[in-house]
Amino acid sequence: MQDTLIIKYIKKRKQEGIEMLIDKYSGLIASIIRNNLGKLTNYEEECVSDVFLAIWDNIEYFEKDKNTFKNWICVIAKYKAINYKKKYLEISNTSEINEDNYYIDKNLLGLEIKEDLDDIFKHLNEKDKNIFIKYYLGGEEPQDIAKENNITISSLYSRLSRGRKKIRESMGK
């Protein structure tokens, strides 16, 4: 119920909406960012602020029939943190840091992301894993994914929904 009110207020651009969002989800968002940024603590506050701004700016893209508000926020927080980590690596590359360290950090980041994704997708079969990657990470159109896999769009959304449920259950949330 509170999420519905938060969404309604943010869509109407009311300050109360963002205040309620901060009260309810700031701890969760900070935790996700801290997990993904690791030792880059100096970027945490800025990243948290950017997450709230992204939610404010993109609230019209939230679709309650496809995902819960909490999960949508978590995805935004995770990818903002990943983008900050990439940004940090680019800044490191332009400063006078040893080039070998940059490549090691970049490889570690890629490995961390791959391990995170493998951990998330390990409970899905190969076809569903492929669909998830194309839909959520590749940004491909649902029609194209459905056509490529010889399934209907309705079936595609059902697979995505069941997959999200499996992932949530496997993560204990």
Automatic annotation (TrEMBL):
The protein's name: ECF subfamily RNA polymerase sigma-24 subunit
Family label: Belongs to the sigma-70 factor family. ECF subfamily.
Domain RNA polymerase sigma-70 region: 21-87
Annotated keywords: DNA-binding, Sigma factor, Transcription, Transcription regulation
Family annotation (InterPro entries): RNA_pol_sigma-70-like, RNA_pol_sigma-70_dom, RNA_pol_sigma70_r2, RNA_pol_sigma70_r4_t2, RNA_pol_sigma_r2, RNA_pol_sigma_r3/r4-like, WH-like_DNA-bd_sf
Pfam families linked to this entry: Sigma70_r2, Sigma70_r4_2
Domain RNA polymerase sigma factor 70 region 4 type per the UniProt entry, residue ranges: 115-167
GO biological process, one term: DNA-templated transcription initiation
NCBIfam families in the record: sigma70-ECF (TIGR02937)
MF terms (GO), sorted A to Z: DNA binding; sigma factor activity
